[in-house]
Specification:
Length: about 425
């Protein structure tokens, strides 16, 4: 059965002049940009939860989307049908990777053992599908936020019984990820925070979260899983405050609990903006600390203050993301995972294609623009010139820790009032526009 009849075989690249809504205008998978193909640079992944499990429901309304794969009355059959639909979609869209939570692919059972059995059945099914299609797993994760048992957190729960449940669930989700050859495993702490400090031991909860991560590091070694671990920062929602609130808070956490060698970050645009930062800021902070791992590619809405998880279509945004990724030398284990959902009114399966095609085209264009800005070199030259004083003499000695307050005073007495220079913000914004207009 074909769940996506609107695309008969594969979405094609037709180029910028095409007016076909079901064709790529910019994403040409095998086109080489700066020594690598677009496919190799961008490493697109589809998120199982939004694209195949999303229903269009919101806090005010019931589901709006009827999906043919969600029809069977047998939960395991329904899960298998959903997986058939997923792999049909991956193949027709021509993406190489997917991402999932344990509870996306297999239903929770009546007991923990039943849930594990369900997960095993669907993991085996996915393994078969991966073999047939060549599609690979970017990362897996455990859903430690939907079930009522996690109402007060998973690892950070006041009750150690819940910690044990969460850790056991992670163990099995890691097993599934390992079996599927996953290139990574993500920790997103949806409820690892607090709703009110009146009932919370904050530092202890942070230590509990670190304890779970250390167990995961040990287990990873034990089973021989070599994929990359990621933490996905988010400041709030569903909790009032999440402990892994942004890149810099995660850096502090990883350093405090001796986890820097074991985790990188999976950064999501809408989480960055919820934290009051730009994605460019989050990417820069992570890259310069050496812990930029992967990206959840989406965007928020300027006028809505929650995680709307929209598809990214803004070329300025994708250019900024690609500039940071190119500066890092590109992804290794990570990729661009569309952690994004179609709007409540976009009820047709065709809308899923429009959404992903638009996101892929926007990133392909961002990649080309970022590569052109780098090859042009003027932006980097301006920044290097601006900091030139730190590359030799007094500036260099300060950075090397070889100057004191007394040396600084001596410097001032000899050089007098410092020269001021324009920061050229407008000229640089215009320079970026030379490439984007
Ligand atoms: C939610 C998160 C979630 C993670 C995976 O806001 O983005 O979808 O990516 O648990
Ligand atoms: Ni995400
Ligand atoms: Ni999110």
């Amino acid at each position: 059965m074909a769940y996506f009849p609107e695309v008969s075989s594969k979405v094609a690249y037709e180029g910028p002049g095409s007016r076909n809504p079901l064709a790529f205008k910019r994403y040409d998978a095998d086109k080489v940009v700066g020594g690598k193909t677009m496919r190799e640079h961008l490493r697109f992944a589809i998120s199982y939860w939004h694209t195949f499990k999303g229903t269009g429901s919101d806090p005010f309304g019931l589901p709006t989307m009827d999906r043919a794969w969600d029809a069977s009355s047998d939960p395991i059959q329904r899960a298998k049908d959903t997986m058939d639909a997923a792999f049909e979609f991956f193949t027709k869209l021509g993406v190489d990777f997917w991402c999932f939570h344990d509870r996306d692919i297999a239903p929770e059972g009546a007991t923990f053992a039943d849930s594990c059995k369900n997960l095993q059945i669907l993991t085996d099914y996915a393994e078969q599908k991966q073999k047939e299609t060549g599609v690979k797993l970017l990362w897996g994760t455990a859903n430690l936020f939907s079930h009522p048992r996690y109402q007060a957190g998973a690892a950070t729960n006041p009750n150690p019984d819940v910690f044990a449940y969460a850790a056991s669930q992670v163990k099995h989700a890691m097993d599934a990820t390992f079996q599927l050859g996953g290139q990574g495993y993500t920790f997103w702490g949806g409820r690892e925070g607090y709703d009110t400090l009146w009932n919370t031991k904050m530092q202890q909860e942070r230590a509990q979260f670190a304890a779970l991560l250390h167990m995961a590091v040990d287990y990873k070694k034990q089973i021989g899983f070599t994929g990359q671990f990621y933490i996905e920062p988010k400041p709030m929602e569903p909790t009032k405050h999440q402990y892994d609130s942004d890149t810099e808070a995660c850096l502090n956490f990883l350093r405090e609990f001796d986890l820097m060698d074991h985790l990188k970050l999976n950064l999501e645009t809408n989480h960055a903006t919820l934290a009051g930062h730009s994605m460019q800021h989050e990417m820069r902070a992570a890259r310069e600390a050496g812990i930029l791992g992967s990206v959840d590619a989406n965007t928020g809405d300027e006028l809505l203050g929650w995680d709307t998880d929209q598809f990214p279509t803004n070329v300025y945004l994708t250019t900024q993301i690609m500039l940071e990724l190119l500066a890092m030398g590109g992804f290794t284990t990570g990729g661009l995972n569309f952690d994004a959902k179609v709007r409540r009114q976009s009820i047709d399966t065709e809308d899923l294609f429009h959404a992903h095609i638009g996101g892929m085209d926007a990133f392909a264009r961002g990649l080309e623009i970022a590569q052109a800005i780098i090859e042009d070199g003027r932006l980097q030259k301006f920044v290097d010139d601006r900091y030139e004083g730190w590359t030799h003499g007094f500036g260099q000695k300060v950075l090397d820790g070889r100057r004191t307050f007394a040396d600084c005073e001596d410097h001032v007495l000899r050089h007098g009032e410092p020269a001021r220079k324009s920061g050229r913000q407008e000229a640089l914004e215009n320079l970026i526009n030379e490439f984007t207009l």
